[in-house]
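Dear H.,

Thanks for agreeing to be a second pair of eyes. The structure we're designing against is below in token form, covering all 100 positions.
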């Protein structure tokens, strides 16, 4: 748990170019960024005071691409999708992606 907390802290405190978290299972994937959520359909579902807590996420599920927003939870990520669907994903399944 300590390693996951350190990994998440590094992501949230780093610059946008430093990296992202990615989880992949076959052709399905979730990419969590440290950039602010800008998806209006998701933001419209949230109280204005909660909007700044959410970051942008990109999901590919069964060949379809979705925009989502996420925020950290103890040990995981709470994802909220544009259609109102949501879910919890454990951070233990994610790996850091580094970009140049």
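And this is the sequence the design step returned. I haven't edited it by hand at all.
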């Amino acid at each position: 748990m300590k390693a996951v907390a350190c990994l998440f802290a590094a992501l949230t405190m780093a610059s946008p170019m430093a990296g992202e978290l990615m989880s992949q299972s076959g052709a399905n994937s979730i990419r969590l960024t440290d950039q602010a959520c800008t998806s209006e359909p998701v933001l419209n579902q949230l109280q204005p005071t909660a909007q700044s807590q959410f970051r942008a996420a990109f999901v590919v599920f069964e060949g379809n691409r979705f925009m989502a927003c996420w925020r950290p939870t103890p040990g995981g990520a709470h994802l909220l999708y544009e259609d109102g669907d949501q879910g919890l994903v454990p951070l233990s399944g994610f790996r850091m992606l580094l970009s140049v």
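Two observations from my side: Residues 2-97 form one domain. DSSP finds two helices and seven strands in the chain.

Warmly,
E.
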